[in-house]
Known about the structure:
CATH class of the domain at 51-162 in chain C: Alpha Beta
Order of helices and strands of chain B: HEEEHHHHHHHHHHHEEEHHHH
Strand content of chain B: 5-15%
Structural class of chain C: alpha+beta
CATH architecture of the domain at 51-162 in chain C: 2-Layer Sandwich
Strand order of the largest sheet of chain B: 1-2-3
CATH architecture of the largest domain in chain B: Orthogonal Bundle
CATH class of the largest domain in chain B: Mainly Alpha
Oligomer: heterotrimer
Number of helices of chain C: 6
Shape of chain B: globular
Number of domains of chain B: 2
CATH topology of the domain at 51-162 in chain C: Alpha-Beta Plaits
Order of helices and strands of chain C: HHEHEEHEHEH
Number of strands of chain C: 5
Number of helices of chain B: 16
Helix content of chain C: 10-25%
Number of strands of chain B: 6
Largest interface: B-C, 34 and 29 residues
Helix content of chain B: 40-55%
Amino acid sequence: MTNPWVAFLLVPLVKIVVILLAVILLAAYMSFFERKILAYMQIRIGPNRVGPRGWLQPIADAIKLLVKEDIVPARAEKLVYFLGPVLVVAPALVVFSVIPFGPAFKLFGYEVAPYLTDVNIGILFILGVSSIGVYGVILGGWASNNKFSMMGGLRSAAQLVSYEVPMGLSVVTVLLMANSLSLVKIVEAQKQAGVWFFIPGIVAFFIYFVCGVAETNRNPFDLPEAESELVAGFHTEYSGMKFAFYFLAEYANMVVISSIATVLFLGGWLPPFPNWLAALWASPALAWIPPIAWFVLKMAVFLFVYIWFRGTFPRYRFDQLMDLGWKVFIPVSLVNLVAVGAGVLLIGGK
Amino acid sequence: MSNLESIKPFPDSEEMEISFGPQHPATHGVLRVLLRLDGERIVDAKPVIGYLHRGTEKIFERETYNGTIPHTDRLDYTAAATNNQALVGAVEKIMGVTVPPRAAAIRVMLAELQRIASHTIWLGTHALDIGAQSPFFYTFEEREKILDLFEEYCGARLTLNSMRVGGQPYELTDGWVDRCRAFVDQFPARVAEWERLLTANRIWKLRTIGVGVISAASAIEWGLTGPPLRGSGVKWDVRKVFPYDRYDEYDFEIPVGANGDTYDRYLVRLEEMRQSVRILQQCLAKLPDGPVMAKVPKVIKPPKGEVYFSVEGPKGELGFYVVSDGGANPYRLHVRPACFINLQALPEMVRGLLVADLIAVIGTLDIVLGEIDR
Amino acid sequence: MSFWGLLASIVPFELGQGLGVTGRFLFKKKATIQYPEVKPVPKDRFRGMFGFSEERCIACHACAKACPIDIIHIQDHFEEVEVDGKKRKKKVLDRYDIDVKRCMFCGLCEEACPTKPLAIWLTTKSYEASAYERNERLYFTKERLQSWDGVRPYPGVVPPRQGQMPDDPTGGPAAGRGEPK
């Protein structure tokens, strides 16, 4: 690109707007898809009255939450109470700045990459930023001036922190196979290897996804926010848009976990068997499929599995949840790490 | 609450007392439980009831005997047919009336269908409390089919008013037997589906095995009946021990658990549903002909006396104690509510467990506040 | 423990079975009825809104006595009429009110009614009688019980004044007592 103003200001701005809009819309519509798919699994139809076949339901929900009275508890710590939802949503959205949705392509003669940036410590950046979300949970629970909210917040935070360890260890196995922290290079490594990383790293794949479910406080790990519990958890005292932010953050985190799992384990924007079937994918019948479509498809599969889990499983009690995280997942991921390391050493030789 | 003060397992701990309910999605009605917690461990639990008291037993005293039957529907409102059966059985006992065989068979069919319907509610809500959302909808879909059968027979789905002193008010409609048979034939496959979702599920087992244990000796001492008693290993079912409505003519088993925990009670109730199917199939196969109403006077005036009669309802032994003074209204009609007596064992079952287990135990006792509070 | 047992304790195969059950339900027929465009069909014996016929009622008070909660209020008086040249006393209804807001729809009144066809019946298949104000709108006088003002009849059903019969709520030609089948 020649014009620096275009290259360094306009293009990133456009990318930010597009990514933010897409992610927020996707998170909002995730609530709709969840209701519909859960309903279909439960012999009923979900929302189907608002808009054609119910498709405007999230818009109606958003308007409702916006015009709802914003109740702040009398003795809540005002600034922190306000910061809680912000600290949960912001990291979830910021993570999308490094996730690659597709390879670089040509647009109007310019080389455009469909991701905001590619830092060479991509994975580290993601793990660090998404951990900031834990602050939002703790502070939100504490600032509500409600001892049950605080207990719920602390429990939720303990769960988030415990499950980050096996998640990180599974990510390390991918790093061993890809030799780079940059997300774009990880996808390219999968193209070079010719196989998506979930095949050699199948254990890491399952651990990553299950820990991802625990990280987002989803069923079967959603005790901190279950309705049949003593309290509704850390977001009991929140109403209106702040409450909406917590839920937006939950869905956005689901999208984050799904995208990262896609990039790390399912080859990002790559079609299946990119090297063996390269001729097939290049044939005129299939060449029109944009790589971002593969990415979205794989992400959609993960999101569907999230909803599928919610519709099927009972939930773990909190102590059983912590037991599982510390006594099962961490040892298994450690053993897996050693095994994959040995495998890479034997096969790769570097 | 003096007995609570005497329990202090950890002398230096800071216990707190909180009120669980009465408005809570998991207490199955308006039940309040005063919990004494040490951290998250339950030191003591005290159920507080009465939020649904409607003075039913007093209302009974001013009704005619047939007029009390709609009120019994509203005791255990998830199992109206067995409530009806208990009341009319008690009045018939005091009058010395035997219902015709066809009426007895229809009563057995209604009662067993009602048992299945009540257990489907139990399974759906219990699974929902423990976190599994979908079985609720699957079980309620089966319940819809049963309620359709009820609606076809007596005109109502929930508050049936389906029996009278002396027999049945209605004859079966055309095709009712076929529709019932169709339902009964496809039902065991549904139960197998629900089992595939829950029985071997490791999360389910973690939540229910060893939770809410009560020994057989304790169960008998507390006077528990129904699945809480049978889950602890005591083989006691009113249908076998004091048969009524010709239950001794049917061939069925009494499922019994081994450990007295939530998982065993879950298995017992599932097996009870299958045994109900067995009884229904036998009823449908050999439904006797004949009248559905015995010869009873238009105004029911039982002779002076008192009698106790009980049936095996889905929740346990539901009994009626009738005191008659010879008039058209009962002098006293007292209900032996199965859920009320089962609920008394709650503190013993939850002591030492976590709060999340309290919900599982309330669900496994299968309480209905309509019967507890009357 | 066998190899498969060990594997099954680590890999949750039974959870996959559970997922299979839910997944299969994804493609089964849904049970939702799109009310109010489609209404669930009540059975023939369904105990719904009251049907009342003043011509058939003989003011015997059997229904009022049978009602467990005493919500049927009847007042009548005797009138002298000429029948076949003889002076006869005939009962004329002044008031036949039902306090529907308290009714439990048990059907004991219908059972007690001695006339053929029934003067009071519940087999009308109609259940939509909701109101915004309950003390007046859910208290049905003699006229409203027959005109069904405020009651939405089930599709295909006519109010009593337009000819509804106990065993044929559509108002078609029907004979018989309205005997519960």
